[in-house]
Amino acid sequence: MTASLQQIFESHSVAVVGASKDSLKAGHQVVRTLLGVGYRGKIYPINRHEKEILGLPCYSSITEIQAPLDLIVISLPGKTVISVMQEAEQRGDVKGVVVLSAGFAETAIPENVELQRQLVEIARRSGIRVFGPNCIGIMNPDLRLVTGFHPGIELVPGNLGYVTQSGALGGALVTQALSQPKPMGFTRFGHVGNMCDVSNVELIEEYGNDPRIAVILVYLEGVKDGRAFMRVASQVAQKKPVLVLKVGRTEIGSKATLSHTGTLAGSDAVYSGAFKQCGVVRANTVHDLIAGAKAISMLTKPRGNRVCILTEAGGMGVISMDEVEVGGVLKLAPMSQATCEKLTALLPPMAMVCKPNGYVDMTAAAMPTEIGHALRLGLSDPNVDMVVLNSIPPTFKPALEVAQAIVAVVKEFDKPVVACFTVNQAMVETRQYLERNGIPTFDSPDYAVRALGILTQATFNSSHSLEDTPVAHHPILERAIAEGRHLLEPEALDFLSDNGVAVMPHVLARTRQDAQRAAKGMNCPVVLKIVSPQIIHKSNVGGVKINLHGEEAVGQGFDRLVNEVEHAAPEANIHGALVVPMAQPGTEFIIGMVRDPQFGPTIMFGMGGVFVELFQDVSFRIAPFDQEVALDMIKETKGYRVLQGMRGEEQKDRASLVDLLVRVSQIAVSYPHIKEIDLNPIRVYENGYSVLDARILLGTE
Question: What is the pTM of this model?
Answer without folding.
Answer: 0.92
